[in-house]
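Chain and backbone:
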Amino acid sequence: MAVLITGIGELTTNDAELGKLRDAAVVVDGEAIAWVGSAADAPDADERIDVDGRAVLPGWVDSHTHLVFAGDRTAEFEARMAGKAYSAGGIAVTVDATRSASDEQLAANLRRHVDEAAKQGTTCLETKTGYGLNVEDEARSARIAAEVADEVTFLGAHLVPPGADAESYVDLVCGEMLDAVAPLVRWADVFCETGAFDEAQSGRVLKAARERGLGLRVHGNQLGEGPGVRLAVELGAASVDHCTYLGEADVEALAASDTVATLLPACDLSTRQPLAPARRLLDAGATVALASNANPGSSYTTSMAFCVTTAVLQMRMTIDEAVWSATAGGARALRRDDVGFVRPGARADLQVLEAPSTTHLAYRPGVPLTAAVWRRGELLTSGFASKR
């Protein structure tokens, strides 16, 4: 059934040819967008929904989350707010809770967070394993994630489990663990950071994953300058995420490559780190994405709007740059062209704002502005009446 969405005051398409349209309309047919243009030229459809001058944009593409988990790390957050420094070691707390949870508990928790994100406009979401850290629990995390998320990433190299030998654990990740999860995931990631995995260990994991046909992602340069960005670019990773501490060579490498710099502002705020240098990256010509990094320890939010607001108010991004980075930028980080755009043939992932323009995302910080969401052509939530 074709649905005509009309009365759009401002339509952000992220398409170079279509641009940003005023007084626009969109036709959704099944799971895809069938037509985009001026409301005056809109074709007939089976159903018509008038959004009465509101802004419409692509659904958020959240390209970095860790949502297959159990347990709670409120105490760690309180300690950090009281002045304790963030370290990678807190991951072990979530590992213990995740291993103890049933499949049903993990799946229900994942679905709850994905639904929570969808109500706020997130229509395409990546999530990672990484709270199992043994063959059995990494494999079941991948299986559960594959049933719910759009994209799944293997992050067995999240942390060396307490009491394990680092080199022996990397052998396990590159061998038996990778064999178990590879059929269930599209990507592999590694936490290349002090307290996690060094450059040589990270390189081993990424090369092993690449040999198995997986795309590459890297957690890098979160806690200080390090080899993460350089390694990601050298190995052709789709994305290097965090990018909080960057030297000039890192910025230049990203600008000269196809590797997306995925920035995680909610995590920077929660860990009381400096915000990533978005303006430097953009001015140098790097491709930037914004993502939530939703996880129970360092960034417990599914709000992409919060990330956009922070990027504009505190990271010196324009509203158009921030919205693009949270939609098309996330799609680029996932090497997808079917989401993050409003154009014929794209997946029918849309959000309507309770506002006349995307500027209100930063102009009205903290105000929930998602009025309606379509995901794969299905209207998830809306207060608008349709007409046949």
